[in-house]
Amino acid sequence: MAGNDAGRSPRGKRPLISITIPVLNESDNMDRLYQRLVAVGDKLADRCDIEIVFSDNCSEDDTWQKIEALSKRDDRVRGIRFAKGVGFQRSILANFLHTRGDAIMQLDADLQDPPEMLEAFMDRWEEGFDVVYGIRRSRPEPALLRGFRNVGYTVIGMISEHPIPRQAGDFRLIDRKVLNALVKFRTPNPYLRGMIAGLGFRQMGIEYDRDARVAGKSKFGVNRLLRLGLTAVFNHSSVPLRLATVVGLAAMAASVLGTIYYVVLRLVRPDLPPGLASIHILVLFGIGLQSVLLGIIGEYILRIYVMLRGDPVAIIDQSVNFSDDELKL
Fold first, then answer.
1. Alpha-carbon distance 188 to 214, whole Å?
2. Strand order of the sheet with strand 168-175?
3. Which of 175, 202, 273, 295 is the least buried, fewest Cβ under 10 Å from its Cβ?
4. Rounded to whole angstroms, what are the CA distances from 296 to 17, 57, 231, 251?
5. Confidence at residue 64, expressed as pLDDT on a 0 to 100 scale
6. Is 160 helix (H, G, I), strand (E, B) or coil?
7. Mean pLDDT, to the nearest integer, of 39-65?
8. pTM here?
């Protein structure tokens, strides 16, 4: 299939590649980002057409104004702005829903992931791979944060119900049929790299070296990474629920053994004084254990409740280069 563009385009002509970019206060990166995307589009002009779709997660700087200005200069640039902040993962999903391409490439606005890799992604896509993702061979970040991230990848990989690629983020290209399958899930708090990994299809990774952020500030500190990791765990693993059962049974077994030991000890040494302190410790331990287990169960119940409530992925406040019929949220 290599080199056969028409084989990946139902229109029988050059495929359209949608490049989706969620933005939040990325004004300082917009001009540089657009220039590199235009250069990529020009280089691949004989192989594909591109569209650039921005989703603005309620930026407080002039990011949206720059998107509007770019859309007036270039009709390939389209954008949606949400009525309120919806988070990074839902912003990506909302953007996916507003693409027209035969394939969709997800890209961050900070240019740490090089848009020039679209060419390598397309090579694998034309070979028949439906998901092509970037694997971070190196990344410029503090050692402590890198270690925290590696531990998180390891834990998620160990307990996930399906394999999730390590050192792979949201930088990827997916075929339209993967998106069609993805949007059937109405998950209120999506973890997209886990969802896409669990869909199946033909997938492969390409290693690359991640660049440093040139301008602006990172939106992902340890707190947000931890929240994203918990979303991954509770969305893609039933291990915490099973662990709650195992820990509860272990605690009950320990209590039975402790009771037997206490009875035997009292029979052997009837003169031992009663231990009020040990009773308090056991009571506090039991209360703490039950609270932890109820919290784990509550996380799953909360996700069920939010899913049944059926909130939209995002509410669009403004758009550029979209018709009313194309706005799906």
1. 32
2. 203-209, 131-138, 168-175, 103-106, 16-23, 49-56, 77-82, 316-320
3. 273
4. 41, 30, 12, 16
5. 94
6. coil
7. 93
8. 0.72
